[in-house]
Design brief:
The structure holds two protein chains of two kinds.
Chain A lengths: L3 H20 L2 H18 L8 H21 L15 H5 L10 H8 L6 H11 L5 H7 L4 H17 L12 H21 L11 H14 L4 H15 L24 H16 L5 H13 L10 H14 L3 H15 L1 H9 L10 H13 L3 H13 L4 H17 L1
Chain B lengths: L1 E8 L9 H20 L3 E6 L7 E6 L2 E6 L8 E9 L3 H8 L8 E7 L5
Antiparallel strand pairs in B: 1-5, 1-6, 2-5, 3-4
Chain lengths: 408, 116
């Protein structure tokens, strides 16, 4: 039998979403589910349920109804009798498949533009993925009470402002879906940044895979949504190869493709193909295609796909000019057209705007090194290091800087 | 649920030579309000005279002090409001997006405290 923890992790989002949709009350849904879990901890050891998720759902539903009744009769002196535990008969008629899947509605509620942007991802991870406040606080580098406050405020706003629990209609669809996708992108970027995979952000990389799978399943005709699900898979596929033995970051072109997860790559590939068949291109598909181009490489003996990468960056820039994308493009440009051409491009960018963007300095440092301008390269590495990179990236930058210093 | 849609815009856009745009915007407001009233959505609302006609009564330390002008000096001022009754925030936001403006402006959408 599945343990309570495992059931709560796997089915919690679905149960909370179903309760939230039924009662239009996030707090009530959360509380009822928490009480059902507490009840399960007490009851399951002696009487394990046939279907743990259905048991939790049935119990949480009863608790919720009970709480609503208690609220409305708070003045009365004698409380109603508590609801009984679900009987075996109840459970025969309510297996897991009967828990309605309302996670999409809940994701749209959590990522509503009326909710503060910094609270959206946290709320989604809390309610749909069942992460604890402590886990989320750690992931977002916030103190636990502050994160608790932020979540409470967001839930209060949703309740008081009358945020709808419906999946938005066609007229609001593009705006609302964009809010959902960009929220999840920001959340994933944080999970991905943690290259070591052992740190706090990586804690919910797993949940991002689940969440995007839910979105791809429930929105099968939204190409940008499928593409984002593909990107998360391509990127997670590389996690085992992102660090060397010393814990330093390994750049994409130096990662051993044999260490990438093939099953995840195949999953991502299938999603990207499905997106392409829908015949509506978009920036997320291009970004997923960039990852896809890399994933075609089967070994370090094969040349990296620089020309394809360069072409995809050009398409991405044709969609929207973006200095951050342009910096990444120069890495491919250096391989295709040489470091001098790439450096000229880098020097032509708005340096003031990119001053705090670490890749700008890291790319510049590398190009200067390759052109033999070592003093300038060292200064650029120092700038990059000053920006406080994550441990793995810092180690890699220090290795590179060390090589240049030695050659001086 | 009832929402107040508070309209903030730059009054300069309606002054002097811009008077004509004022007429046009007022007509657009009337059309929108008429439509919302027929649908039973509109519960109230009004345009307000310009902020230079405002008098602010401030209570501080048990004393009332009066001063000439709006509550807050800002480039964009409260110029009017709609009170609407709709099922949820999305519906209120959709109406807010239809409110006419002469130039740039903002609508603050605030849920109204329900009585009883």
């Amino acid at each position: 039998m599945k343990t309570l923890d495992q059931t709560a992790r796997e089915a919690g989002g679905r149960i909370v979403a179903a309760l939230a949709a039924a009662f239009r009350d996030l707090d009530l849904a959360e509380e009822a589910f928490a009480e059902a879990c507490a009840r399960a901890a007490a009851v399951w050891p002696a009487a394990p349920p046939l279907d743990p998720a259905a048991w939790l759902y049935a119990t949480a539903r009863r608790r919720a109804l009970d709480m609503i009744r208690r609220r409305s009769v708070r003045q009365r002196l004698t409380p109603d009798d508590p609801e009984p535990e679900p009987s075996a008969e109840d459970l025969l008629t309510s297996d897991t498949r009967l828990i309605p899947d309302e996670r999409l509605r809940l994701i749209f509620v959590c990522c509503h533009p009326a909710v503060a942007p910094e609270a959206r991802a946290a709320l989604t991870l809390r309610l749909v993925c069942g992460l604890s406040v402590q886990e989320i606080a750690r992931a977002f580098l916030a103190a636990e009470p502050a994160m608790f406050q932020r979540l409470t405020r967001a839930k209060k706003k949703i309740a008081e402002a009358g945020v709808s629990f419906e999946v938005p209609g066609p007229e609001a669809w593009p705006e609302r879906l964009a809010a959902v996708l960009s929220t999840l992108e920001v959340a994933y970027a944080r999970a991905h940044e943690d290259a070591a995979g052992a740190g706090t952000h990586a804690g919910y990389a797993r949940e991002m895979l689940d969440l995007t799978a839910v979105l791809a399943e429930l929105l099968p005709n939204e190409p940008e949504c499928l593409a984002f699900a593909a990107t998360v898979r391509f990127a997670e596929a590389r996690r085992p190869a992102r660090l060397d033995a010393e814990g330093a970051m390994v750049p994409l072109s130096e990662q051993d493709p044999a260490r990438w997860s093939r099953p995840l790559i195949l999953e991502a590939d299938a999603l990207l193909r499905r997106a392409a068949r829908l015949n509506a291109s978009g920036p997320r598909q291009l970004r997923a295609a960039l990852h896809g181009a890399w994933s075609l490489r089967r070994s370090l003996a094969e040349p990296p796909p620089w020309s394809a990468i360069l072409a995809l960056y050009d398409l991405l820039l044709a969609w929207r000019e973006d200095p951050f994308v342009r910096i990444n493009r120069t890495v491919a440009l250096a391989e295709v057209a040489g470091p001098a051409v790439a450096l000229a491009e880098v020097e032509g960018l708005d340096a003031a705007r990119l001053a705090d963007f670490l890749p700008f300095h890291a790319v510049r440092a590398d190009l200067l090194t390759r052109l033999g301008r070592r003093e300038e390269a060292l200064a650029a590495y120092d700038r990059a290091l000053d920006l406080g990179p994550q441990a793995a990236e810092r180690l890699w930058l220090m290795q590179r800087r060390g090589e240049v210093a030695q050659a001086l | 649920m009832q929402y107040a849609l508070l309209i903030y815009e730059n009054e300069e856009l309606y002054r002097g030579a811009n008077g004509r745009s004022f007429e046009a915007i007022i007509a657009a407001h009337r059309a929108l309000a008429g439509e919302l009233a027929t649908q039973g959505i509109l519960k109230g609302g009004s345009g307000l005279k310009t902020a230079d006609t405002a008098t602010t009564v401030r209570k501080a330390g048990g004393e009332h002090a009066l001063h000439d002008g709006p509550y807050a000096e800002a480039r964009e001022q409260l110029g009017g409001f709609y009170l609407v009754d709709v099922p949820d925030l999305d519906a209120a936001l959709a109406i807010a997006k239809r409110i006419p403006f002469a130039g740039d402006g903002a609508i603050e959408v605030r849920p109204v405290i329900e009585e009883g």
